[in-house]
Amino acid sequence: MKKVILKRIVSIPIILFVLSIMIFSLVLFLSPSERVAVFVSSSDAMQNVSLDELIKRYGLDQPFYVQYKNWLQGILTGKLGWSNSAGMPISEALALRIPATIELLLTGQLIVFFGGIFLGTIAAREHNRFSDHFIRISTTIGISLPEFVVSLFLLILFYVRFDLFPPGRLGLAATDVVYSDSFFNYTGLHLFDALLNNRFDVFADALRHLVLPSIAYSLGGLAATVRLMRSSLLENLSKGYVDTARIKGLSDKAVLNKHVRRNAMLPLITFTGMRVPVLLSGSVVVETIFDYPGMGLFIVTAAQGLDFPAIIAASLAVSIIIIISNLAVDVLYTILNPVIRLG
Amino acid sequence: MNQDLLKIEHLSVSFKNSKDQTHAVRDLSLTVKGGEVVGLVGESGSGKSVTARSIVGLLSNSKKTAVSGRVLFKGQNLLMNQERKRLNSQKIAMIFQDPLNSLNPVYTIGHQIREVFMVRKKMGKAIANARAIDILKKVDIQSPETIARQYPHQLSGGMCQRVMIAIALAAEPELLIADEPTTALDVTIQAQILKLLYQLYTTTKTAILFITHDLGLVAQFCHFVAIMQEGQIVEKGRVSDIFKNPQHPYTKGLINSIPVLGKKKRLNPMPLYQGGVHPNSSCSFFPRCTEIKRRCEKETPEFIEIEPGHFVRCHIEDGVSLL
Amino acid sequence: MPGFFKQIVKQPGGFIGLVLVLFWICVAVLAPVLAPPQDSTDPYMIARYGFSTLPKPANETSLLGTTSGGYDIFYGIVWGSRTALITGLITVFFTSIIGVLFGGICAYHGGSIDDIAMRVVDLFMSIPFLIAVIVMTTVLGKGLEKIILALIIFGWHRYARMMRSEVLRVKKMEFVLAARNMGAPPMRIFFQHIIPNSIYPIIILMSINIGRIVLIAASLSFVGVGAEPGFADWGQTLNFSRAWISGIPGQPFYYWYTYTYASIAIITFVLGWTLLGDALRDIYGGEIST
């Protein structure tokens, strides 16, 4: 097992390298003045200097690989450039936005995974009875509901009409607390940090803001995992080891919980893991509708403002997130499935 | 010791699917006494597995399954109540045809054996572990500690079946049902497993219901045998009687089709299954029988006792063969 | 052909799907009749009645009302159906051809070509679709053609992967082995034998994807990185309504018409193609994961 994981870890730099070249080559589509912005790290540096000066200074008339090398050097030392749309250095913006999206991602994934296990088990247990049919129909609808529509609907219903769950990430009061000196931001994930700082009011506030976006985010995935869990359970129930377990004297409930579930869960892990790119795409719409300041909204604002350095840096960040998440899923799956682990 | 341990009385099982009803088991009656090894022989589809599964309650619970008759284990009807079945499953164990698939792939061997002790005897983990190692030794597994830490997919088919036997033995059953335990294994491994089963039988004197399609195995291993065909028992009795004096045409056909090493004889396969029963008599063997008599078209054959303990469901005596 | 339609219609989902799809096709085809263009040189620019930012409900001039900027909602919906169909059909057409050829040929050849091809497909699979499209369109500029191009570039891999598994399955079948033994040239085998037998899951995927692609395109326009402002696109229409979702104090649904019609259009369009795909899947059987 360790060999497999090592091999994966080793391949990461290679993949990143290839991806970074692909992303950077987008720069070729840009005009020189636009390209300059990719290298400059503050807006002041662009003033009072002529375009030719800038081109020479940042080596923009050099061949591609030199430009790439310069850019890569900058990236590795943390100089990601300046974002016009955000009005701050990109590294700062990313430091704020990435945890926000990760928090949303994790919450959504938790709903999708555990909700899928829970509801899928109910559906399989009540096989062909009312609750099963109900769950099947609602999941069929759920898969085809566009995130778009779900988000709008939730926003209109629960905020506009009932004023229960507001958009954004934190209320005014909580924001003051989070940015004050007495609050330590360990991870950038407000839910965690609030607990670590013993501020339950911040925790509650952050949670309140997370409810709608994470539901909108996860509804499609939840529908899929419920169906997956259900069919996986039913498939496993007809396998030989279930008979053996029953013969041993285990009750039906124990058979389901102790034997079948462990096996049935495995496809869910792969599926949930594979959804991360999909979720990140979804974050664009969800974060926009709920005004949630994460990577998705960042990319959209950058795109609207033709903020190229931001777009490029954000693409890189997103790729890294996906690669890490893929690795994590692989490791988790290998741990949980002895057949893969021991070959 | 020699009281009736398992007594199946007029068991019938049928499954309803969208079009028609399949009568998997029809009016089956069979007795296994304590300490006996009884063989249940038949082709695929004859209903032997269904019979076995209905004894231990492994039939699917859906509305499409209809079960009638009685299955008495030490006097109690197993078909009556799920709870009672649970109670009595303490004394009955079963091993299956495909050992690898009968084990849970995500748990170690040790865990799966321990589970029997922890569930049935309520033992703690450490004691259960020790007992598990013991049992693995009893089924002739070398280095049981290592095996206990491994997972099913790391073991060969023969090893898996030994583990299954270990799991069955751990329950200290009075009746062991073996559903084609060697069918999925190589011939050499088959012999090993049978030898193991025999050894264990001589030490524990557990009654065994041995289900197989191989009449040769029955000859080696069983005291009594029942021959099944199309859901019905067509002949049953002591193994020696059946082999010396087979009565039912099906039995005769089975015995004749066993290839004998050394004898230069042509193989005599049984005629192929034609399907269905004759409308007037419900003799299921009618389409393939080579000894049809006039009576066979009109009357359903009932059990006749040819000699003490030897029963045949056939119109044996009267009439001339029509063929 | 008629038997084919009969089968679809027999399924309740398929029937509804077919009705919805046909409905929108009719609307798209009849667009010039239903909503005569204001500016005949560019019918895709939504008709405007005034430049007020305030939406106005249905009145004599506009059937369903106007949204922010004076854009006629009815016009946007009608001509938006054309945009949707064009986007969906063109994108799916090209992605499927590229994907099928790429996945099919590489799988048929096998060996290291197949390995490399799989790596490429895996790479594309890890790229978040919407984000990649946004990045591309930002760099390439606005306009429907650029959106479609981006959609094609990042969308073909689905077909490649599916085609690959189908080809691997069919490759082992008897009649293929027989054809190879007879000495038939590989390309001929590929087109005459392999493709017809592996094409059904692809068709199902195509149907479902038309809905998906239109949804993505609508999302793009919704967040403001899609077509030019004023272009007839359902997402755009919704985009104009964003500021007005909260209505006015005391009457939260005051501007309901700005988002309801477009939402219904999107939902029914996507649902139609998805149901159609599901019905096709039921007819042709098999476990196909999309």
Task: Supply Rg of chain C.
Answer: 22 Å
Low-confidence stretches of chain A: none
What is the count of β-strands of chain A?
2
Number of helical segments of chain A? 16
The helix-and-strand class of chain C reads mainly alpha
Pair with the biggest interface: A-C, 42 and 37 residues
Helix proportion range of chain C: over 70%
| Cα distance spanning the termini of chain A | 9 Å
- Cα shape of chain A: globular
Spatial gap, N to C terminus of chain C: 25 Å
Mean pLDDT of chain C: 82
Description:
- The complex is a heterotrimer of chains A (343), B (323) and C (290).
- Chain A has 343 residues and is mainly alpha-helical.
- Chain A is 76% helix and 1% strand.
- Chain A contains 16 helices and two strands.
- A two-stranded antiparallel ribbon of chain A has the order 1-2.
- In chain A, helix 5 packs antiparallel against helix 6.
- Chain A starts with a helix and ends with a helix.
- Chain B is of the alpha/beta class and 323 residues long.
- Helix content of chain B is 31%, strand content 24%.
- Chain B is built from ten helices and twelve strands.
- Chain B has helices at 48-56, 82-88, 109-120, 125-138, 144-148, 157-170, 187-204, 215-221, 239-244, 249-256; strands spanning 4-16, 21-33, 37-41, 65-73, 76-77, 92-95, 175-179, 207-212, 224-229, 232-238, 303-307, 310-313.
- In chain B, helix 3 crosses helix 4 (125-138), helix 4 (125-138) packs across helix 6 and helix 6 (157-170) packs parallel to helix 7 (187-204).
- The model of chain B has no long low-confidence stretch (mean pLDDT 82).
- Chain C has 290 residues and is mostly helical.
- In chain C, 71% of the residues lie in helices and 1% in strands.
- Chain C has helices at residues 2-10, 12-29, 31-34, 73-109, 111-125, 129-140, 144-155, 157-171, 174-181, 186-223, 234-241, 256-284; strands at 66-67, 71-72.
- Chain C has a two-stranded antiparallel ribbon.
- Chain C is elongated, with a radius of gyration of 22 Å.
- The two termini of chain C are 25 Å apart.
- The model of chain C has no long low-confidence stretch (mean pLDDT 82).
- Chain A binds chain C through residues 15, 18-19, 26, 29-30, 144-149, 152, 155-156, 159-161, 277-278, 280-282, 284-285, 288, 296, 299-300, 302-304, 306, 308, 311, 314-315, 318-319, 322-323, 326, and chain C through 123, 125-132, 134-140, 211, 215, 218-219, 222-225, 238, 245-247, 252-253, 259, 263, 266-267, 270-271, 274.
